[in-house]
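Subject: sequence -> C-alpha cells, single chain

Hey, anyone have a minute? Need the predicted structure for the following. Not urgent.
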Amino acid sequence: MLQPIQTPNRRTASPINSTLEKKLSAYIAVAGAAGVGMLAVTQPAEAKVVFTATNVAVTQSTPIDLNNDGIADFTFQFWAPGWHSVYLDVEPQVTGNAVRGIGNSSAACGFFGVPVGPGQKFLANSYSGHGVRMAAFFSNGTSARSFGPWANVTNRYLGFKFLINGQVHFGWARVSVSKYVRNVELTGYAYETTPNKNILEGHTSGPEKASMIAPADLLTPAPQPASLGMLARGADTIAIWRREEVGTAR
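Reply:
Had a minute. Here:
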C-alpha cells in the first residue's frame, strides 16, 4: 500500500527588524551607485568623427579650422616666386600641426578609405618655407605645365595631424585642383575626436566604419588598375591600392 507523501514543514517568514532593513537598503543603494561609478570609469570613450561639409574656392590665403574652435589649424595659399610660376601650398598654423607627406616637401594625395594616423610621415614645411607643397604651375610664355601630386585631381584627400588641448588628433580635407592649378575647391573636412586614433579619409561619421561615399568619389578614376572583383568587395579594399604617396612610414 502506497504511503502518502509527507509535505515538509514550511518555515514561517519572520519580519526583518526595521532598523536592519534600513541599513540593508542603504547598503544596496551605496553599492549600486559605486558599481555605476566604476562602469562609468571603465567604459572607454566612444570614437567619433566630426564632419563639416563646405564648398569653398581656395583664394590667395584660405584657412581651415578642422575642429571649428575658431582657431585656424592650416592655411591653403598661393604664392608666386616669379612671373612665370605659381605654387599651391598648405601651411600649418599651430606648432605641432603637420600634413601627411611624401618625400621631403610634398603633401600626399590620398584616396577614399585610406587611414590617416600614428606611424605615418607628416611634414610641417617644405624647402620653400611656405608650408607643404601640393602643386605648381609653370609657364615660359610659349608653353605651360603643372606638376606635383595635387595637379589636376578631383576629390582627393589631405591627411592632417593637429593638436587639440595639447593632444594629437587626426583629420582629413577633401580637395579638387584643376589643370594648371587655376581653380582649387575645398569640399569638406573631418577629424577624429579621440586622441591618437586614426581616421579613414572620406568617412564622415561613426567609429571607424564606412558611412557614405560621395558620388563624385565613385566617378573619379583610380590611377592604379583594379579588377571588378576587387571593386565588388567595397570601399575597404581601396587601402590595398595605396602607393608610396599614401605616406605610410616604413
